[in-house]
Design goal:
- The protein is an alpha+beta fold and 280 residues long.
- It is built from 6 helices and 10 strands; from the N terminus they run ααααβββββαβββββα.
- 58% of the residues lie in helices and 21% in strands.
- The strands form 3 sheets. The protein has a 5-stranded antiparallel beta sheet with strand order 5-4-3-7-6. Strands 8-9-10 form a 3-stranded antiparallel beta sheet. Strands 1-2 form a two-stranded antiparallel ribbon.
- α3 (88-109) runs antiparallel to α4 (115-167).
Length: 280
């Protein structure tokens, strides 16, 4: 019982604010535009009667929205998804406020009842329902956006962990005669360049760049490292690790890459230009 009461109080707080604003807006609208001719001449009495419209609307909004929220929640707990449409609240508030305004105007405010009064009452009661619907949509979008931001952060953490695991994997480069080898982690390899019958492997050892020549072909090396997406072909003679690319440069039909922490320039051919741009 205490839990239900606590939930009721928690739901009452946000509804109190929006209901008060809308009710006060209706009060000002009726006072300035005077859609109803009241059977009183004293201004103070008119304000009192107008306040009655606001109080009625305020009570209807709070009671309907809080109770429907608790009913929907209970329904979800029992049957799963709610069977009520999203506009159910707005429809109930519109119908109740229209009937209540008509009775209040006829029996208390002395506005009488005619086709004109009925149309004005319907139009006046539409405003709260529309405003509440827009407010609910905005609140739902904001909540959904927060959920997506949280989901994005979780995915980013997973991607970063995955990339970290990949970058720490070891690559064993060997010569075609197997008499020479070089073991490096993925994040140490800067680029690999063909040089006649050899490949030149440039890697970072702490803050320095080192080179190692192995007798092999660039095609064999590419087949060995193709499972790692951070390695891309930028030229028929060169494969580069995208994590070390500083910038792509262009000048009069020529393109080249600069490497972070070094003055090395790697050529980029038109054949691989699009792939490099996508990687960057």
């Amino acid at each position: 019982m205490k839990n239900k009461l606590d939930r009721f109080i928690l739901k009452l707080k946000p509804e109190h604010g929006i209901s008060l604003k809308i009710s006060f807006g209706i009060f000002l609208f009726i006072m300035f535009f005077q859609p109803f001719q009241m059977d009183v001449e004293d201004f103070n009495n008119q304000l009192l009667l107008i306040s009655g419209y606001s109080v009625i609307l305020y009570l209807i909004i709070v009671v309907v929205r809080v109770l429907s929220s608790l009913i929907f929640e209970l329904n979800r707990e029992i049957e799963g998804d709610s069977i009520f449409p999203e506009y159910f609240n707005a429809l109930v508030i519109f119908l109740l406020s229209a009937v209540a305004f008509a009775f209040y105007g006829y029996f208390v405010a002395g506005t009488g009842f005619s086709f004109t009064v009925a149309i004005r009452t319907v139009i006046l009661c539409l405003f709260p329902s529309v405003i509440l619907s827009l407010n609910d949509n905005f609140r739902n979008l904001k909540k959904r956006n927060e959920e997506l931001v949280t989901e994005k952060k979780n995915i980013q953490k997973q991607v970063e962990k995955f990339e970290e695991d990949i970058l720490n994997k070891t690559l064993d480069f060997t010569s075609d005669t197997n008499n020479e080898s070089l073991s490096l982690t993925v994040n140490e390899v800067v680029y690999i360049k063909s040089s006649d019958n050899y490949v030149e492997i440039v890697y970072r050892d702490f803050d320095t760049f080192k080179k190692k020549l192995l007798r092999n072909t660039l095609k064999n090396i590419e087949l060995q490292i193709r499972q790692y997406s951070n390695f891309i072909r930028c030229h028929r003679t060169c494969i580069v690790n995208v994590h070390f690319i500083e910038r792509l440069h262009r000048s009069t039909g020529n393109q080249w890459l600069t490497i972070k922490g070094n003055d090395i320039k790697l050529p980029v051919s038109r054949q691989y230009l699009l792939r490099v741009q996508e990687a960057l």
